Amino acid sequence: MTSMLTPDQIEAHFTRGDGSYGFSRWGRPIVPVVFGVEEATLETVKGAIEAVVTLAGHKMAETDPELGANLMLFFFREWDELLDVPNLDKMVPDLPALVARLKAGDASQYRGFRFDDQGAIQACFAFVRMGRDMEKLSAETIALTQAVLAMATWADAAFATQSPLAVLPESGETVLRPEVGALIAAAYDPVLPVAATDASHALRLFARMQAAG
Asked: Where are the beta strands (DSSP E) in 31-120?
């Protein structure tokens, strides 16, 4: 039996620091592209994305008609490296100011989203700085975490105290926590909206999780 999140816990996953509720999921097939990793790690990252997308009941594709790729993951050692990526400043507004802010905060990662007219995720730019903290993690852990974080507009504090992943004691394998997997699957239920700003949406997610569980 999957351990169940309460409605309040679900709501907290999508509640911003200012108290507002904000949820969006992908409204189109996901087309990932990964920069800054070796071939073996590339397969690990894409495999993790495919696993989470399949869990959600969503789709992947070979190309996006507007953007080519719509989930772009960048792995690097220093934030300044982003300033040298061709045309990235055209896709990410105010890139120099963003890089300066992330450097000042000694951030290890950042995600920026674009949305369509319905409020669904249209594109995601995920930046991961492979500093000391990240280097302690396995490629599988980093890949699965980034896949989860790209699937919805989670609150900044959603996984601040508990990772979305767990390690199986028997095998040492890193897996998605069952309740997080159930939440993602519920979030992509076709009967639910692609975007929501009312906290009552959390109750609908809870109901879908109960029905599925």
From this structure: 32-35, 71-76, 109-115
* 3-16: pLDDT as tens digits: 689 999 999 999 99
Overall pTM > 0.90: yes
| Dihedral over Cα of 42, 147, 133, 82: its sign | positive
Domain hosting residue 80, numbered range = 26-151
Cβ neighbours for 76, distance < 8 A, ≥ 6 positions apart: 36, 82, 127, 128, 129, 130
Same domain? For 170 and 202 the reply is yes
User: Are 154 and 13 within 8 A, CB to CB?
Assistant: yes
**Last-in-domain residue among 151, 173, 199:** 151
C-alpha–C-alpha distance, residues 154 and 16, integer Å: 9
| Per-residue pLDDT tens over the stretch 150-209 | 999 999 999 999 999 998 888 888 999 999 999 999 999 999 999 999 999 999 999 999
